[in-house]
Design a protein that fits this description.
With 175 residues, this protein is mostly helical. It has one domain: Ferritin (Up-down Bundle). The protein has five helices and no strands. Helix 1 runs antiparallel to helix 3. The longest helix has 30 residues. The chain is elongated and about 55 Å long. It starts with a helix and ends in a 17-residue tail after the last helix.
């Protein structure tokens, strides 16, 4: 049985993940408008990944007979100056999500909700990867802000092609 306090916090996190989806969508559109197709594609994929995280959380709540409440989300930052600012925002967002995920784990532990604690372990690992990816991307974008082709080359070379993670939780609505 999922602890009520954890279920409430996880429902709030579903909203945070969906807000992250919308923010990454806005970032992707920004790069698409700059004719940076590789960076746009990277952020479109990031948006889908954030939605998938939300759906994993939905499925967990469904599996544990906890109530699912899809919260409303704030509008994303709609526009940016240049190529670096959206990545700075993305890194800050990933650090914020890391804090949120860590808090969920803390709640599960405080409530002795061992199944929920185990569920959160995958997200802890995922956030380490997300922060590292955005940090590296920010370094490259900052260094090459005047050479968009180099940023695009980096994304083409270093991002994508990860494949599915067999350890990932099941997502609601997934095939």
């Amino acid at each position: 049985m999922t602890a009520t306090r954890f279920a409430e916090a996880l429902n709030a996190q579903i909203g945070n993940e969906l807000a992250a989806h919308n923010q990454y969508l806005a970032v992707a559109v920004h790069y698409d408008a700059l004719t940076m197709p590789r960076l746009a594609s990277f952020f479109y994929a990031q948006a889908l990944e954030e939605r998938e995280h939300a759906m994993m959380m939905v499925q967990y709540l469904l599996d544990t007979d906890a109530e699912v409440v899809i919260p409303g989300v704030e509008a994303p930052v709609p526009s940016f100056d240049g190529v670096v600012a959206p990545i700075e925002l993305a890194l800050a967002q990933e650090k914020r999500v890391t804090d949120q995920i860590n808090n969920l784990l803390r709640i599960a532990r405080e409530e002795s909700d061992f199944a929920s604690e185990q569920f959160m372990q995958w997200f802890i690992k995922e956030q380490v990867e997300e922060v590292a990816t955005m940090s590296d991307l920010l370094t490259v974008a900052t260094r090459n802000a005047e050479n968009l082709e180099r940023i695009e080359e980096y994304v083409a070379r270093e991002q994508g092609g990860e494949g599915e993670d067999a350890t990932a939780p099941k997502a609601a609505g997934g095939a």
